[in-house]
Model the fold of this input.
Amino acid sequence: MGGIREKAVSKLLVATRNPGKAQEFKCLLRGIPFQITSLDEEGVAEEVEETGHTFEDNARLKARTYAELTGLLTLADDSGLEVDALSGDPGVKSARYGGLGLTDEGRVELLLRNLEDVPWEGRTGRFRCVIAVVRPGGEAETVTGAVEGVIQYAPKGSNGFGYDPVFYLPHLGKTTAELSLEEKNGISHRGQAARKAIELLNGMAAQRP
Done:
């Protein structure tokens, strides 16, 4: 990519190539005092291998690496689904569950097969998100969010992405794929973490010369 670019603190790099996640972050971070940019917009071809054992490990790793590559203030998240009956799986492997060749639909099918004999009361789980924010050369600060639910027996709903069609929210009587983006952002793990990240970003903006 030609080395580290000149630092531009007026920009915030959101380090994801997932279009669904990128769209959610654009909505969630609306109004922050930074111009949001993306890996593709910055011409970043490098991929960061998620080798951490926790969501926090991976979020920090991605944020630090892309901040140093670009010279930009960087926000990265790692998030996924933890299912109690599967000892916390898919967990940090949520996006790679069953191998890199599977689509979102394929991963959902695999999850349902692995839960085939598990009764409703045992199908509890949660979406968890950790967001890391870091300036180049600085220490990463992290915030978290989580939402509890139940893995239902078949997909329902056409919104969202990933495991949303089978993640049932008992207090709403819907899956997250049946919620509008605004409704989802109001209660989701990523929405919770993003609201905390906005506080971090506002504080960083206030410290700018």
